Amino acid sequence: QVQLVESGGGLVQAGGSLRLSCAASGGTSSNFGMNWFRQAPGKGREFVASINSSGDSTVVADSVKGRFTISRDNANAKNTVYLQMSSLVPERTAGYYCRAKGLWGRGTQGTVSS
Fold it and tell me: How many angstroms separate the most distant Cα atoms in the chain?
């Protein structure tokens, strides 16, 4: 059973950056596509970015394009995906969740102070 564990969240001032990680474990003998979603307080979960299994194709939501970058590390059949977030504003405060193979991680909180 694949498990997804996010890390890297925290408190940052407006204009700052955060780098989130999501590591997959269990049943990960091959690479697979991975995604980031976020959920702001009182709102539904929304798509942020996705990356394919080889890492050569990405999709980033228009709302964060140019500020967020998704990448991955496939060394040694490892499935670890990163979300680099820059020029953060308080409106980006949210729980950030990794999704892959139909599963969700527990999320990591990113809070942007003004």
Answer: 43
Question: Per residue in 28-86, pLDDT tens?
Answer: 678 899 999 999 999 999 999 999 999 999 999 999 999 999 999 988 778 999 999 99
Asked if 71 contacts 55 with a C-beta cutoff of 8 angstroms, the reply is: yes
Distance CA 43, CA 100 (A): 22
Tell me how many degrees the CA angle 68-93-64 measures, rounded to the nearest 5: 25
Which backbone phi and psi does 28 adopt, to 5 degrees?
A: -115, 50
DSSP the chain: --EEEEE--EEEETT--EEEEEEEESS-SS---EEEEEE-TTS-EEEEEEE-TTSS-EEE-GGGBTTEEEEEE-GGG--EEEEEE-S--GGG-EEEEEEETTEE---EEEEEE-
Amino acid letter, residue 34: M
How distant, in Å, are the alpha carbons of 38, 65, 79 from that of 28?
Answer: 24, 29, 7
